[in-house]
Amino acid sequence: MRQVTINGKVHDVAVPDDMPLLWVLRDVLGMTGTKYGCGIAQCGACTVHLDGVAVRACQTTMDAVYGQPVTTIEGVGNTPVGAKVQAAWLEKEVVQCGYCHSGQIMSAAALLNENPKPTDTDIDDAMAGNICRCGTYVRIREAIHSIAI
Amino acid sequence: MIENLVSRRNFLRGTALATAGLVLAVQLPDSVRRAAAAGDQRSFVPNAFVKIDVDGITLIMPHAEIGQGIYTSSAMLMAEELELDLGQVKVEAAPPDISKYMDPILYDQATGGSTSTRSDWMRLREAGAAARIMLVEAAAEGWGVPSDECRVARGVIYHDASGKTATYVDIAPRAASRQVPKEIRLKEPSQFRLIGTSAKRIDTPAKVNGSLVYGIDTRLPGMGYATLVMAPVKGGKIATMNEAAAKAVRGVRDIVRTDDAVAVVGDHMWAAKQGVDALEVEWDHGPNSTVTNVSIVMDMHEVSKTQGVVIRNQNDAQSVIDNAKTKLDAIYHSPFLSHAPLEPLNCTLAIEEDKAELWVGTQVPVRAQKAVADALGISPDKVTVNNQLMGGAFGRRLDVDSIEIAARLLKDIRYPVKIVWTREQDMTHDFYRPYYYDRVAAGLDDNGRLIGRTHRVTGSSVFARWAPAAFINGVDPDAVDCAAETPYDEDAVLADYVRHEPAGVTTSWWRGVGATHNLFVVESFVDEMAHATDQDPLEFRRRMLTKNPRALGVLDLAAEKAGWGETLPPGRGRGISLQFAFGSYLAHILDIEITPRKQIKLVRSVIAVDCGIVINPDTVRAQMEGGVLFGLGTAMFNEVTFTNGAVDQSNFDTYRILRINEAPKIDVYQVKSGEKPGGVGEAGTAAAAGALANAIFSATGRRIRSLPLWQAAV
Which residue segments constitute the domains of chain A, with CATH numbers given? Predict the structure, then answer.
């Protein structure tokens, strides 16, 4: 049994060290907001923050997680930047099917934490790892620009 | 295609299906309604779409929410007549029940073909109005006042003279015993409060905080998590299997198999995946193990030489072309495509001795129910279907193969199991958009006017598999949609269809269906005609729109907004695509740039759309933006190919999806119209490839007749 801190709460888990965080979140802890899309870090649907840095949960094994705080889509709204990103996403009506947007929002929050006024190029660099199959990219860009940190 | 499908099916059944009659058709019989009310005195269920009880006001959604925003639009149609705000209602997915929730255009309880708003535009407003009338009459009767002295605002009924008020919820028990009104007068468009506004979507707040439960997020007590591996070649079977190593994986519970698939059930997906990886399976690949893309295309090339089923034959187009001043002919190729919705296929099944419950996101709940029932040998009414919001579908969830496979695999397991396809299994076992091989020819007169056109489509018939009852005499209306009929003035046209089913491939509906494929061909070829006769592609099209003011309207609007006619900087290109599809008119003008590294950069998309009366303008804009990016990304990058019968692409590394850094700026302009609503979910996708191919020609002088196009400038 080891401990992992997610969204400020400590959880006891008994899982293999090489188990990806994605499945621990979804299937062991029941936090299904973090999505499975590809399993090979191509789509970004599983993006979470590990000690504030955006990582792909499908490629992040538990041995690399222990000791560092994890933030997921369920908790990012409790951070000032995360709450603003979520609000901007609704204000600009970014979302269609929504399946990628847990990851999109986590990537955008990580970007804005580092860089409060990103340029289009900054947005491209930070968000190009997140696929949106519905094609909401125009609004993602608009929403990020609209956020005043 | 859709209109054709309806008329064909109605013809078949000898029934005329008038939209206006639909509400009556779906009304519950009075006896049933009264009985339901007697069971719960507080419940008001005037029709299949409205339910009011102590829990509040619930609207039943006949069409599935896939991301297109239909829950919001459908709720707006009903709330408009019910005099409610969207914040006052809950929505619920319709259960499988074709007698109540059939899409009158698709003749199935199905969400597809951009039909939802067209189907629901009348019946949902009528359902809302009927409920409102009954509630008001019930209140008025209770107060002893004439109902026409009452008014309604935000779900509250007022009798101003007496100062009496009642909420819908208050009055629901009394309304439950009333007769359904015989006459329903709907609001005039000038009276709309909600329709025509960009009301906020009702499904999105739960999508930005991780709380929305998609099918793949289903969790039940004691549930197992499964994933599977299927025969890599269609028709293949398991030859030998050793499951010892898989059983030894920590967390693996059960291993189940059919002839051609194995699933491992574990305590979580990680155990299941490791279990599948540890399986030692030898496959007998069966009769399709030599299929390659080359063999498929060679076969199509041969069969396309002979005439197919004639769909349109007007004024001997071939001899008109033979005698024309300018003659053109060409062959176009459109590849197999995968749907690749971001939520991989999945479902959750709880199977008991004589019944089952299913949680899934499906575009066809009745088919889903039947798939489980058939696999388990029970009757459909023993299968409860919980339809979930979907993480995309694009046509993939119009088929129920994944549900049927799950039911066959899990039939003997007596605890709930969620089965999730890996991305790799999803992409290699899709039902693909058909490969199409198109032969086109045209003749133009001395004035450069199009006088004759032929178009032969060769490819698989999705229609024949999916709706065999409507596939009559070899005619597949979808395969030639937008090829037989164009928005242009045409006197001599021959359009025919050669059905060719490639061995080893199952084909299906894919966003934009026939229009997506045919508009690439037709709009590219129209561009070829213009250039062959030294005409401006815009003016060439304009001259052929003398009888089509709505098509001309969108074309002119797009041209004005795009700045058509201005000189483009070197390396830039600009292409047009024009269409009438899904009941909507759309013009797309795309600007691209060829980079110094000979890559194609999408710069700006200008879309002008006339889809009749608009329910929610922001939703229309979103569908245009998303639809055109879906089509552009596909036209740039995507094809599914086969080697030794197996699909070569398996994940987003080999099947690229357009990314944010590759997306163009998009400007959408909507024409104000009083015409009946048209479909919008697929229109943008269908407008993409032709405009892109034409822009590449404009930039490079190279005419590319085969998709995808990403290497066109190299």
Answer: 2-71 (3.10.20.30), 76-146 (1.10.150.120)
